[in-house]
Amino acid sequence: MSWIDANSSVDRQKNFFSKGERYIYSAVGELNLYPLFVENNTHLNNKDGRSGLIIKSGMLQSPTWAGFTQYLLENHKIVSAFDYRNWNGWFPAIGYHERFTLITLAAFSEKMRFGFYLDTPEETIGSDKVFDMSVAECLKMNPITKNIATFSNKIDKEILSDIYSKHNILGFSKHWNYRYSTGLHMSLEANALRTFEELNGNGLDLINNFFYEHDSITNYPLLEGKLIHQYDHRFATFAGIPKEKRFGIKAATINPGDEDKRDVDFEIIPRYWVSEEYHHNDKEKRRIPDNWVLTFRDTTNVISNFRTFVACIAGETAFNYKAPNLIIEEKDSKTRAEKAALLLAIINSFPFDFITRMKFYGANLIKSIIDQLPIVDYELVYRFKDELIPRVLKLSYTSNSVKSFAEALDYSNGPFKWDSNERFVLKCELDVIVAYLFQIDKKTLEYMLEYFPIVKQRDLDKYGTYRTKETILKLFDEMDWVKEEMEKTKTEKFS
Fold first, then answer.
1. Residue 392 host element (H or E)
2. Is the distance from CB of 334 to CB of 409 less than 8 angstroms?
3. Are 462 and 449 in contact (CB under 8 A)?
4. 4: in domain
5. Is residue 223 part of a domain?
6. Nearest to residue 349, comparing CAs of 320, 294, 311?
7. For residues 204 and 211, what is the distance between their CA atoms, to the nearest angstrom?
8. Do both 286 and 206 map to the same domain?
9. What is the residue range of 29's domain?
């Protein structure tokens, strides 16, 4: 009886908020009190009045309340919003990693002040962490969801604002023509998963990472996000991991060494496989046209991950939802492969990673974040395809499983042998080309590279210097021909 009464009470409250005219923008999705309180306050202020609230920072960044945030912005309701981390334990009952925002509202405010990732109240006074941002700037950087982009300081905001003023966003770009798609959901489709013990016990043969019966494939490997890295579909493996450590949220993996990766027949061993029928039905349902696909890690963050956007080309395999796919929508197979290679060069670069870090929130690289990232015009990028595609191909085609991708690019020789030193230089060269394409100068690029403390620390530990940064900046001077070619392109376009 108590449960029925409580349930009825919740339904009555939901109807009150959802069907009235006072909470038009905040009574959406699963109801939360803090958006409701904010919207209620927008009705209380007279023309000279102001109100202040403590809310969860996610309200201004989450797509759930994007319509509400858009209403606040376009109607000039926000006076200021200061986002704090709980690292000082002001709220001891919640985790130190939680963030909250002090938001001040008015009936109409001429300008807005923002500050993010603050740790002390003093930072709101005369600090470079606090800055003005116009409604137009806010909406330019998140034109689809209309929520507010977060920046650590004024410099970051100015860099991003400049980039967005020069380039379109992925979600509005017709020429890149990509589609976001996710694979198998581990919980909802758990009945489709097969383990090594189960398949091996049925007398099937494991060859590379496929299970066979006689000469026919019966089960395809399931690729998870944790198993890949940039230009590397063989980053981690479950080979040799005992069954008791193989399953769970933080299942242990092993990183194969260079010797393994120099073997073009070597492939990683997953935790799960799916049947041939499931795999082909999934490909048909998700309209995957090729035996290769551009995939990336969904789970990431900007604190403990040394890179944010982590993507690669993978061969014929199944994917779980933590390894989403970016599928190029083109009829011609070569055009699909070329666009995938060019897009991969951009999203795996340090400049693009810096931009992603500025726009990232939560723990997942979701579609709404990707769609609103800036992108260089495809026609300009295509002018540099002879510099970009061979480097991407050499980094990606390191095993026979990616042969179909190479063939689509008209490359008929065997896989490239894994060479860590050569790969490092190739990636640095791609970073430089992408920086020039985004019209990023050397000083800004140097600033961006300081936003990757784990990369820096690993270099310092191994080489005694920030080798990655030094190499990229040296190449930036040596590869100034990219800028010259871009100027020629502009001249040709307007001549």
1. helix 385-396
2. yes
3. no
4. no
5. yes
6. 311
7. 6
8. yes
9. 17-166
Q: For residue 88, what are its two tokens?
A: 């000082």
pLDDT digits (tens, 9 = 90+) for 337-361: 999 999 999 999 999 999 999 888 7
Q: Which of 135, 166, 197 is the last residue of a domain?
A: 166
Q: Please tell me the distance from the alpha carbon of residue 426 to that of residue 414, in angstroms, as a whole number.
A: 19
3-class DSSP assignment, residue 273: strand
446: left (phi over 0), alpha (psi -120 to 50) or beta: alpha
Q: What angle do CA 433, 379, 313 make, to 5 degrees?
A: 60
The CA distances from residue 150 to 128, 307, 390, in Å, are: 14, 18, 36
Q: How many CB atoms lie within 10 A of CB 158?
A: 14
The tens digit of pLDDT for each residue in 44-55 reads 989 889 999 999
CA distances from 62 to 57, 264, 304 (A): 9, 43, 22
For the entire predicted model, the pTM comes to 0.91
Buried b (16+ CB within 10 A) or exposed e, 398-421: bbbbbbbbbbbbebeeebbebeee
What digits encode the pLDDT tens for the residues 135-194?
999 999 999 988 898 898 999 999 999 999 999 999 999 899 999 999 999 889 999 999
